[in-house]
Amino acid sequence: MNWRALIYLLTGLLVAAPVQAERVFKRVDESGNVTYESRPSYDGSSIEERDISGGEDPDEDAIALDRAIQYSPVTMYAIKKCKPCDQAREQLNKRKIPFTEKDPTSDKALYKEFQDLGGANVVPVIKVGDAVVNEYTSQALEDALNSAGYPVPEKAESSQEGGDTEQAPPDEIR
User: What is the pLDDT of residues 39-91, one digit of tens each?
Assistant: First the structure.
């Protein structure tokens, strides 16, 4: 038998072999990093089991969310007792988007980081990947999230509450 024919035969057998059911474990650490492992690690991270056997395609929204989280993480610079900050938190939570929240009044380095992004003393400032929402409105945040590839919920409310353009006065964050 010719070597080339033998290689083709073996390759064909490997391709035609039935796919066995396999499980993977999605792990999200405290920094929001997502990894997939063949065995669960018990280090206190959030673990979700997924079946990757043949048949059904994985949920497209879950894939889009994982990709958006990886390439365009969301960071919100906000303070307590701030109506626009609360509205932004609610909007992110409603869309089930994980985000990191930083209080720019808690430390000088965070304040400088906040100033470099926003250029003013107005909260919230929301960073979605490389995009920055300096003047929060629900539409501005939606646009940034959609541009970053975050999945849009199927039952999105068509009417948003008014008054979401209110901003905290500059002296509140000092």
Answer: 776 666 666 666 656 555 567 888 888 999 999 999 999 999 999 999 999 99
Q: How far apart are CA 125 and CA 139, in angstroms?
A: 14
**Helix, coil or strand: residue 27:** strand
Alpha-carbon Rg for the chain, nearest whole angstrom, is: 23
Q: Which tokens sit at 140?
A: 């501005």
Query: Both 105 and 166 in a single domain?
Result: yes
Q: What is the pLDDT of residue 155?
A: 63
User: Is 168 in contact with 122 (CB distance < 8 Å)?
Assistant: yes
CA 46 to chain centre: 15
Q: How far apart are CA 23 and CA 97, in angstroms?
A: 25
Q: Which domain holds residue 116?
A: 71-172
Which secondary-structure segment (H or E) carries 36? strand 34-37
Residue 5 lies in a domain: no
pTM of the entire structure? 0.58
CA distance 82 to 167: 8
